[in-house]
Design brief:
Elements (H helix, E strand, L loop, with lengths): L4 H29 L8 H27 L13 H28 L2 H27 L10 H28 L5 H34 L5 H6 L2 H24 L3 E5 L15 E5 L11
Antiparallel strand pairs: 1-2
Helix pairs in contact: 1-2, 1-8, 2-3, 3-4, 3-5, 3-8, 4-5, 5-6, 6-8
Length: 291
Amino acid sequence: MGEFDTTIGFTLMGVTVNTYLTGLIMSQFFTYWNSRYQDPWSLVAFLFMINATQAAAVVYMSWFYCVTNFTNPRVVAISLWPYPFTALTTAVLALTNQMFQSWRIYLFTKNKILVGFLVVTSLAACGMGVAAAIQSWIFSELAKLVALQPVVEGNLALQCGIDVIVAAILTTIFSKSKTMFAKTDMVLNRLIRTAVQSGFFTAIFALGTLFSFRFSPGTYMIALFALPIGRIYTHTMMDHLISRERLRSILSNNGNIVSVPNFNATTDGSGDGSVIMMRTSPSTSKTNRPF
């Protein structure tokens, strides 16, 4: 193994994966901005700015390590500012995604206690992530970052747990809404797959970051997982935003019977939150759609 494989090597791998994922979400931004969506642009503009800034920062970091300090082997002991900046942006993007998913869960369930738990836990995880980012910015030496282990591990464990819980809740909601109608089930299967994939990949990267920091604190293995995780959160949100029209068009073609939770239709009087039937058409109100 080479002298810099576990330091600059892992950093370059993380930058490569992060840059690739940035290219994917930039294509999602392009698709969104060339579509007919009439959403407020504040969320999408925020996601674009924070991801573009983070991608530029880590590319600069790779240049700093590999070009500017090519003949300076001691530079590997320095944790450059894009590392804590990435931790800060990841905490913000994780909170944004978790709030977005919690809002979807509330629309389906109207369960204030459940959603309140998700919101409070997400805020706690974000607070720990911001605190860890600030402290790592102060402790610029790699050897000193071990002192942040409890905060970092707590942040990553909460993020992973929230992502898994959200994916499980959404999967349960969509599974219970299935009907005998092919178009409806096609859409629900797509929503289930998206929920499972988003929770799976964010959990994998969070656990990878957690285990790297726990068992390999003297290396930059953490960069392989920590640098790209924010792009996973962004991809999850953008995939939902740009897929809405296609899913709605599937349900709107020639009308279709759709099974949905009764948050957007009249109840059957039983008060048990049972699923009821409604007919969708091209003129169905967008406000009451489940996605």
